[in-house]
Design brief:
This protein is α+β, with helices and mostly antiparallel strands and 455 residues long. The protein is built from 17 helices and nine strands. One of its GO terms (biological process) is DNA replication, synthesis of primer.
Length: 455
């Protein structure tokens, strides 16, 4: 590459200079390669990002696996859907220069393989199947579009503050169980940039799970089942609920359903919506008794109470009354609540080690929003509609005057809070645990070799 062809500094891009001249702070909304170049040039947290994926293997400790991070797959989706899989990098500087040069519209993270994925073909010729995934965070992917049958405010990829709490509930349920039931500590929740959330469980024990073990963990969380056409997708068999489900119901789901969802989604506001809930009652006589009651309510309109709350109260009273106890309908109330509120996981993503998942701090091309971490302890405060957009961040950089120090330019933007949270609440405790693990494994190895010598 000749001197004249060297990659330009992101700040020297013509279009970007014009933006600065024409409007010192405001940047037109949108997502394009020029905007992205500035973002990758000034704001993407390469250092923290790379440190995370090294899991302590980037130091001088004799127990470090120097080949570790170079065996991790990165996948880049470039402009016009050009797809580059099996990228690998040995250092943060290498990763940074590749991202700046290629300007990926999307970055996905894959597993750590047994050998460098970029050299997989050389190994394939040896005849042994040595190119296999050996480590991968336990991941979960939850999309709001999978709740389209129980939300009436939006559909598809659209999301608003009436339906987003379904994602908040998913975070609360899964985070509590992953910590309390499975003993995991290093869990990163990330907004997908548009319509959902991603969960990365990064404990060493989680990363080493086999596909069978991942499937078992995913199945532990699986309550919502059945295909498109199955009317009843939640069945809670047995005389008592599993302790995890019972805790989820009493601590989170029941209150959320009764205090928020009933009204925000107007679950009983029309004949069609009422019928949908009545279809979940296995006894037709009881369902038609309720249907008649609600028809009567509508005609007399005596109730000043909210129609959703009034009808839900009638349904509960009817199903939980003594006369229906023997018919096993009492559980039906819980099943309805679970149907409308319980997390709906993309099971395949969690079950297999070789699934790719979008990296934190990417920009979503459709919304222009950053995939920022979510604090599970304050997830009810998270508002997807105010997550920083690419153009907003560039406007903030403009306002700050594009200081030459690009090392910490993010401190001058609304990305600061997210990067600080990632660093202090997730990364630092994780790296401390990794250091302890390395130390312990190394000492155990030394002890082992000492013992074998003594023998």
């Amino acid at each position: 590459m000749g001197r004249d062809e060297e990659p330009v500094d992101p700040m020297e891009i013509d279009g970007q200079q014009k933006l600065q001249v024409d409007a010192p702070t405001a940047v037109p909304e949108g997502f394009n390669a020029d905007y992205l170049r500035v973002y990758y040039g000034k704001l993407f947290p390469y250092g923290d990002f790379f440190k995370w994926l090294c899991y302590g293997n980037d130091g001088k400790h004799p127990g470090c696996d120097q080949s570790y991070v170079g065996r991790r797959e990165f996948s880049f989706t470039l402009e016009n859907d050009i797809y580059l899989r099996f990228q690998s990098f040995d250092s943060a500087a290498e990763l940074e220069s590749s991202i700046k040069e290629k300007c990926p519209f999307k970055i996905d993270i894959g597993p750590v393989y047994s050998v460098d994925p970029a050299k997989r073909h050389a190994y394939a010729q040896s005849g042994n199947n040595v190119f296999v995934p050996v480590e991968r965070e336990l991941i979960f992917d939850i999309d709001i579009s999978d709740y389209d049958d129980v939300r009436y405010c939006c559909s598809g990829a659209d999301v608003c503050l009436n339906c987003w709490p379904l994602m908040t509930i998913a975070i609360k349920i899964l985070d509590t169980s992953l910590r309390d039931d499975f003993g995991f500590n290093h869990i990163l929740w990330v907004y997908s940039g548009r319509r959902g959330v991603h969960c990365w469980v990064c404990d060493s024990r989680a990363r080493k799970l086999s596909n069978e073990q991942r499937s078992a963990v995913a199945d532990y969380f699986r309550v919502y089942k059945g295909g498109e056409n199955a009317l009843k997708k939640v069945s809670l068999p047995g005389p008592v609920l599993h302790p995890f489900l019972a805790r989820s119901y009493t601590d989170v789901l029941e209150n959320f359903f009764e205090d928020k969802l009933l009204r925000s989604q107007q679950l009983f506001a029309s004949e069609e919506r009422c019928q949908k809930i009545l279809d979940l009652i296995p006894d037709e006589n009881v369902a038609s008794e309720l249907h008649d009651k609600w028809q009567g309510n509508r005609r007399s309109s005596i109730s000043k109470e909210d129609v959703n709350e009034a009808r839900w109260k009638q349904l509960k009273t009817t199903l939980q009354s003594g006369k229906h106890k023997a018919q096993g309908l009492r559980r039906c109330v819980e099943e309805i609540v679970f149907s409308y509120t319980y997390p709906r996981l993309d099971m395949e993503v969690s079950k297999h080690m070789n699934h790719l998942l979008k990296a934190p701090f990417c920009i979503h091309p459709k919304t222009g929003r950053v995939c920022v971490p979510i604090d599970p302890n304050n997830c009810e405060d998270f508002d997807p509609t105010v997550v920083p957009t690419l153009s907003q961040l560039l406007g903030e950089l403009n306002a700050a005057g594009f200081q030459t120090d690009s090392e910490n330019s993010w401190e001058k933007t609304s990305l600061e809070k997210s990067i600080r949270f990632f660093r202090t609440s997730f990364l630092q405790p994780l790296l401390k645990a990794c250091k302890d693990d390395l130390e312990n494994a190394y000492n155990a190895k030394l002890q082992q070799s000492k013992n074998s010598l003594n023998w």
